[in-house]
Specification:
77% of the residues lie in helices and 0% in strands. The protein is mostly helical. Helix 1 packs antiparallel against helix 2 and helix 2 packs antiparallel against helix 3. The longest helix has 30 residues.
């Protein structure tokens, strides 16, 4: 179980690093998904030890991840339609002129 916790920490760290370093909005969403999957792995592992009801929390996180992906991709598509880029550094205005 300890090895899986280390693996989950590695996945979370990788997702955090991708979210911070990369400037492409789609890749940033993938980093957030990695962090949510690492949290799911921890919840399932702790459920195996009997400390908490991890399966219900994992199901809730999966539901949140699906909603986040749908809303995030809709925002990325609108951003691409308006600015013709998915790089977050190239977006400098918040409203249309």
């Amino acid at each position: 179980m300890e090895n899986l916790l280390y693996f989950s920490a590695f996945i979370f760290s990788t997702g955090l690093l991708v979210t911070i370093v990369k400037r492409n909005a789609i890749v940033m969403l993938l980093g957030i998904e990695l962090m949510l999957n690492a949290a799911n792995l921890n919840l399932v592992l702790f459920n195996r030890t009997g400390h908490m009801d991890g399966q219900m929390f994992a199901l809730f996180i999966i539901l949140v991840a699906v909603c986040e992906a749908a809303v995030g991709m809709a925002l990325v598509l609108q951003m691409y339609r308006h600015y013709h880029t998915t790089l977050t550094d190239h977006i400098s205005e918040l409203k249309e002129k």
